[in-house]
């Protein structure tokens, strides 16, 4: 029973990770297109790095990386 509860909790966490990562990827897609138009926009470049860093960190925390 305890293992099932642990798995259920992990399943919810993974679903949340996938949802949040999907939102970040959608934003990254938009930002990368904008960066092509504005390659000198350092603030935008920083936002892009933060998005990738967030996904990388979360996936590592969950043991997916």
Strand percent estimate: under 5%
The description of the largest β-sheet is: none
Number of strands: 0
Overall 3D geometry? elongated
- Output the structural class: mainly alpha
Low-confidence runs? none
Helix content: over 70%
Distance between the termini: 28 Å
Order of helices and strands: HH
Based on CA atoms alone, the radius of gyration comes out at 16 Å
Task: Round the mean pLDDT to the nearest integer and report it.
Answer: 91
Discrete helix count = 2
Description:
With 65 residues, the protein is an all-alpha fold. The chain has a domain at 21-58. Helices cover 86% and strands 0% of the residues. It has helices spanning 2-37, 42-61. The chain is elongated.
Fill in the keyword field for this structure.
single chain, 65 residues, HPt domain-containing protein, HPT_dom_sf, Sig_transdc_His_kin_Hpt_dom, 2 helices
List the helices and strands and how they pair.
Elements: H1 2-37, H2 42-61
Brief overview, please?
InterPro entries: HPT_dom_sf (IPR036641), Sig_transdc_His_kin_Hpt_dom (IPR008207). The protein has helices spanning 2-37, 42-61.
